[in-house]
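Hi U.,

Before I forget, here's the chain from the pilot set. I'm dumping it here mostly so it's searchable later in email.
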Amino acid sequence: MMASKKRNPILWAIWLFASLGLAIWLSLQLVDETAPKTAFIPGPMTHGHHQIEMQCSVCHGDGFDSETVLQNACVDCHGEQLDEAQDSHPKSKFTDPRNADRLANVDARLCVSCHVEHRPELDVGMGVTLPMDMCAHCHEDIARDRPSHEGMGFDTCASAGCHNYHDNRALYEDFLLAHAGESWLKTPAQQAPRDLLARHLRDEDLVALMRGQGAAPADAATPEHWDGNAHADAGVACTACHGGGDDWTDSPEPQQCATCHESESEGFLQGRHGMRIAQGLSPMTPSQSVLNMHVEASHRELTCISCHGAHDFDTQKAAVDSCIGCHNDEHSNEYLRSPHHDLWKQEKRGELPPGSGVTCATCHMPREEKHGEIFVQHNQSLTMRPVEKMARPVCLQCHSLEFSLDALADPHLLENNFNGQPEKHVPSIDMAVDRDKSRDKKGPY
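Structure:
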């Protein structure tokens, strides 16, 4: 027998002390709340969460101990959106005993069954980490009920203009039929009014809210652009944002605007621009984006005043200039050469009525009505993934459903900012019409 090799005591000691030192360092990183947790990340985050990857507790809580903690974290951030979308695959569908057999293939009660973080090699798009033929697990017999689907590959179910797992509001059969046969561009009389005041509070409400808050310090100069802006006209005092007396601050906190603009602030914190602030991190900068951005804007912190300015609050500037001042991708740059931008220029020149132009904000920050009041949805990510989410609240204001689905399904048209007609056709409405005609021929049951 060969004698076993003796360990080198020096190398052994080096390895032991290095391991001990690493263990101590890792332990200190864990207990130090201010220390970055980069060393503990098992892999990159998806495009939707990469900005907050250092804030592990957002998803994992304090214990990293159960699927329940992860599930609650998903619902805390996305539950409201799923409710508003009338989630077509809610948890209740899979806790129904009649669907218990479905769980053997995919446990759809849990978000992490389809959305796994730290595994970028599994991501097939939109943060989904299941194969694109996952629909076949539950819908393998779909062609029996819908002959139009005969021969279709299950990897096409989630194609643009077809089916969305959570949000199918623009694809329900009754909705498709209701919008069949429409002209691609609605007449002005058919278009929804877009000149509504996008204010959560009326001027008189602001005046009452700010009255009696005192004045600015005697040596505080009236800021440039203040006279004539919406806040000045509403009687908003300097102290509403800066505080008064001994509490005066030259640079208010980023979320000071939420004092009056609560709905807008809530949306901002839910989107890519504000999600870091919502988790107690420093504001996002364009350098942290996965999209192309202008180099000179790389380190600009994104807060309310990044787009609106500290004192001028120019909504026209915020609707276009603030966006293209950071974004340098093809879609953003092509907007300046698009028919939508031509309409915007005509509106600004007074050649078209208010609301006729189409800005970046028109599509990515649409105006919404809740409880009888109009406000701008500041979650600019809300209608982006999947792109068909934009059809109902945005595109249908001016265009037909068929044209909207075709345009959103055309990647070239998306890139050139809708400068032209769709080169693809999504047959969703055609299928709904054919199915409806087929039922008519069969007569009453």
